[in-house]
From TrEMBL:
This is Helix-turn-helix domain-containing protein. Gene3D superfamilies: 1.10.1660.10. GO terms for molecular function: DNA binding. Residues 4-48 form the Helix-turn-helix domain. Signal peptide: none annotated. Pfam families: HTH_17.
Amino acid sequence: MSELLTIKDVAEILKVSQGTIRRMLDRGELKGIRIGRLWRIAQSEIDRLSHIKPK
């Protein structure tokens, strides 16, 4: 199982704002697990995103 990261961790890795990560989760562009009010994102999901080139 992949390590679970916080929104803050993911934002720092991808060099975007935490708001951007939240929007990506809301739109389904980024898959995450909601635990109560908190989101957790698997490291494997970040690896998947790192292969996608921006437009």
